[in-house]
Here is the input.
Amino acid sequence: MTELRRFWEDPAVAVVLRSTETSPFGRKVRMALIALGLDTRIRLEPADTLAETDCLRLQNPLGKMPCLLIGEEAFFDSHVILEMLDALTGGGRLMPREGPERFRVLTRARLADGITDAALLVTYEGRFRGPDQASERWLAHQKGKMTRALAAFENDLPDPARAELVQITLAAALGYLNWRRPLAWQDAHPKLDKWLQEFARNHPCWTRTERKQE
Here is the structure.
């Protein structure tokens, strides 16, 4: 980590985040950068995951974003990047350094990521298949994942006053649900809806990473 920090602090080394303003996983990284005070070091460079000519496919063979470039080295995915950012600031800022609580936090963050994963699959089903090709069984399967995960958070909300791994990941997921609307969730989860509003009021990283209105 000492070597990585040396590169990070060297102004001659470019630090680039390949992502877009609309990517929920990219937003998660951008929120963390702001919360940790690291955002001024980053240059955001849009990526097109569907373009064969986009060099993202060379930087990340999976062709997925976000992808963080520090000099010539690429790091992905969003969870790996957030672990790195936490370590760069000394550790313990986004997640516990060690012990059982660390793994509880990592598990809940993956649960929040799962909401985003399922929402993206529902979105892609509508984007890449015609209405007569869409699988209602597949859509119901993904919506079931989102509904169960939302219910779990409704019954065990993280502290909205803190901008840590679980909170940032959950906020990014809910923001994506509010934009793409793969399912209506607020009425069934009023405490979670209120939680997002409180998180947004408490943390500038939410407002500063909102997508520009088209």
